[in-house]
Amino acid sequence: MEITKNTTMGEMLEFDRGIAVILMNNGMHCVGCPASIGETLEEACTVHGIDADAVLAQIQEYVANK
């Protein structure tokens, strides 16, 4: 699966629950919230004031090294 800033939180977590650790380490503690599941990575980062490109890079590195 290719993860982009347009990938929803639900899609990412369904693909690999380990991504939740990266999200939480970046201040997104709402990964289990039903409302967040439909948000894209970019939308979730914007809401939390987090750099979506930086989080995406961490997620892509994690997935590439699995």
What does this structure look like?
- The chain is mainly α.
- The radius of gyration is 10 Å and the shape is globular.
- 53% of the residues lie in helices and 0% in strands.
- The mean pLDDT is 93.
Strand composition percent? under 5%
Radius of gyration: 10 Å
Helix % is 40-55%
Separation of termini? 12 Å
> Low-confidence spans: pLDDT under 50, at least 5 residues?
none
H/E element order: HHHH
SS-derived structural category: mainly alpha
Which outline best applies? globular
What's the SSE blueprint?
Blueprint: H1 9-15, H2 19-25, H3 41-48, H4 52-64
Notable characteristics:
66 residues, mainly alpha
What is the gist of this entry?
The chain is an all-alpha fold.
